[in-house]
Design a protein that fits this description.
binds pyridoxal-5'-phosphate; 2 domains; globular; 12 strands; 417 residues; 7-stranded mixed sheet; 15 helices
Length: 417
Amino acid sequence: MIDTALSYGEQLRRRADAIATTCIHGGEMPDADGALDPPIVLSSAFAFASAEHAARAFRGEEDAYIYGRWGNPTVDALEAKLAALEGAEAACATASGMAAIAGVLLASCQAGDHVVAPRSMYAESARLLRERLPKLGITTTFVEGTRDAYAAAVTERTRILYVETPSNPTLGVVDIRGIVEVARSLPGARPLVIVDGTFATPFAQTPLAIGADLVVHSMTKGIGGHGDVIGGAVAGSRVLVDAAREVIVKGFGGVLSPLSAWLVARGLRTFALRQERACATAATLAAHLAAHPRVAVVHHPSLPTHPGHALANEQMHAYGALLSFELRGGDGEREGDGATAAVDRGRKVLEALRVATHAVSLGDVRTLVVHPASTTHSTMPPEARRLAKITDGLLRVSCGLEAASDLVADLDQALRQ
Ligand SMILES: *Cc1c(COP(=O)(O)O)cnc(C)c1O
C-alpha cells in the first residue's frame, strides 16, 4: 500500500489527507450548549429520568449512561473517533495498553488454551505470556514472525495468533495477511488474529482491513501523541469489542478516565499532521544513520536493505516513526566483557544527546531514545533477547516533531563522542 513510484513525502501527504478530516470530526457529537470542544464529563453516575427509565436501562432495552465504568460520553466520543480511524465497527478504550492486551487475551482464552506469539515484542506483553498467563493454564509458543513459523506452532488448542508489527525494538515486519490465512485455513473454531498496532498507529497501518480480528493499541504512544496520558484500546467487530469490554472494563475495571479520554481525543485531532512529520523524520534519520561510519546497522522498514521493506510496502501506509540502530562493535565483542563494552558505548551516546531525550515510551512530540538491553528489555532472559535480536549496542529512536536537521546534528555529535 506504499506506492514507491511516489516520493515518500508525497506518499505521507496523501495518507495524512486520507485521514485528516476523520481525525478532526470523527466521533464528535453536537453539544447541547453548542460547545465546539466536547465537554469532559467526569460524573461517576448519571441520574435516571424515571423508575421506568432505570429499569429499562438495566434490562439493556434503552441506551443510557448509568455508571462511569459501564460507559461515559467523553470516552464514547474517543472510541468512535478511534474506530473511524481503524475502519472498525467498534472500539473500546482502556486504562492502558497493557489493560487492553491482558484483557483481550483473558477474554479469549481459558485454562488449557494456547497462544502463538512473536519472539520480538513489547517486553511487558512477552512477560505476560511467558510468566503470568501460564499460572492460569494459558501457554504460549514464541516464534519468528513468519507465516510458516506461526503455521508450524498452531495446535488444536490455539485460540490466538498474536502479532506485533512493526516489532519492538527491531522493527521487524510481520505478514498480517499471511497469518490471517493460517488462521482461516484451520478446521473448526479458528483462532483470533490480534495485532498490537502501537508502533505503526492507524496512520501507518490498518490491520482490520487486511483481515485481522482485533487491533490493540497503547494510546499512551503515537495516538495520544503528547506524552501526557496513559491509555489503551481494542478495535474490531462489535461482537469481539463488546466481549473484550465486558472483561477488561466492566469486569477487571481497566476503565479509561474521562480526563484521559479527552486528552487522547485532543491528541488525535492533530494526529495526521504529527504522524506525517514524524514518519518523514524517521526515514530521514534512518537514511542518514545507514551511511554513518559509527553505525553497524539501521532497522527501519523504509530502507530497501531492511528484511521487511517489501512486506511493509504491501501492508502499511507508511513506515512509521520508530527506528533502531546498532553501534559498530555492538555485538561483535560478546566474548569476555565485550557485552559490557557495547552497553557502555550505548550509554555514552545517550548521555551525549542534547535535543533527543533519553527516556522510555514513544510516539511523543519529543524525540525519545532508549537502550533496550539495559532498560526496557532487561527483564527478558538473555537467550530470549538474543533470539529477538536485541543486541547490547542497540538504540531505539522514537521520532518526535523537532526539526529533522536538528536531530541529525544531535545524533552526529553524540556519535562522535
Ligand atoms: C507501550 C506499549 C504497550 C503497553 O502500553 P501501556 O499504555 O504502557 O500499558 C504495548 N505494546 C507496545 C508495542 C507498546 O509500545
